[in-house]
Amino acid sequence: MTDTDLEARAHRYRVMQHAAALHRALAAMPPEAARLTTGGDRDTVGQLASRMLWSSTADLNQQGRFAESKQVVARAAEIAAEEEGTAAPAVRVVVGLFDRPFAGQLDSVPVLEAIFETKATEELFAEYDGSQRPYSRIVGGGIEFRVFESDKRSAALDFTVPDLPALRARLDANGGHAIGNRRGGVATMPSGGVVMQARQAGWAPPVESTRTGNVITVRFEDGIVAELPCPAALIGNPVARQIDEWDRWYTAERPRPPWRLLDAGEHEAELRELLAAMPEADRYLSIEPGWYALAAQCWRQLKKIDPECVVGEVKEKWAELRISACDQDRQVVARFGGPIGWARKQSLRTCEWCAGSIPTDAARPGKPSRLCGPCREFAEAWERARWTGNDDRR
Description:
The chain has helices at 3-27, 31-38, 45-62, 108-116, 164-173, 238-249, 268-276, 292-305, 337-347, 373-387; strands at residues 73-81, 86-97, 100-105, 121-125, 135-140, 143-148, 156-161, 186-191, 194-200, 206-212, 215-220, 225-229, 310-317, 320-326. By secondary structure, the protein is α+β, with helices and mostly antiparallel strands.
């Protein structure tokens, strides 16, 4: 390992430590003071570190400490495995840091140790599953990363965890963030220019769901079945709606199948009329059926103001119903603000799944976020069955 590699790695590691300390300090401040300090209210450790790195790596680049490279090369350095007193060869991978290509030691080991509070070892392999692609395997605390060479000069970490929701919660608590394919049991965590993908161990996606009375039955890909009691007031089957949306979004079919309006009941005719007033490429509603009545009533009022109005979108954002509309010339109409604002305010006290009344402070992080007590209990039971698959499956 060269002095340049050590210096670059130490620099990034120090930045992450400083960013974590800054995040803890901001979390202890009143929200308004934190916003004034950072210019925003949703800064994560990664975002803070990115800002610090962006301003500080310029000097390092000017001094030539990040040399560019076009290929993945093995380095002769070894990472000592303290527990066994042995050493394993590590790998040097070309990655993109904030769109800056550079050849530097991969940050996988310190990131792994920071997230899981454990020691890690890294080992280079010649191929993976017969693909002839070099990769390295990084193991620590029962977690396994695989780092693949990429033609686009980037690296991806693919690993499995026994409890993916717990990892998400851990990241949230420490100012991190994770996004990803929930149907596939995957979470993506950007870190220092490296894409980290965590997969739920033993994950089997749901493939079918039916409702009989107050019981929703879910069949998973591995054949296991979950039976979940649900509130009588619950509109339709939220599990079936999720499966339908996941199947549409993650299909390899192009173009994707059109969005389907499900569980609309008595509001179906008006909602289809509303959809027809939207641009063809955006004809879908990103809300749950509990808000369909609000959207239909808002549409009724918009038509009275301008029968030719164009609806831009109907969606949930920050646990509120957001509707946008304009005239045929794509100009904002001030009078549209009345029904649109009414629908937003009503959504604050309306359950997304059953349309029942709820306190305006009932929203919580996560989706769907504005639920009454019984619907939230069902949502949590479905989440447990989806991720852990033990207590709620038979």
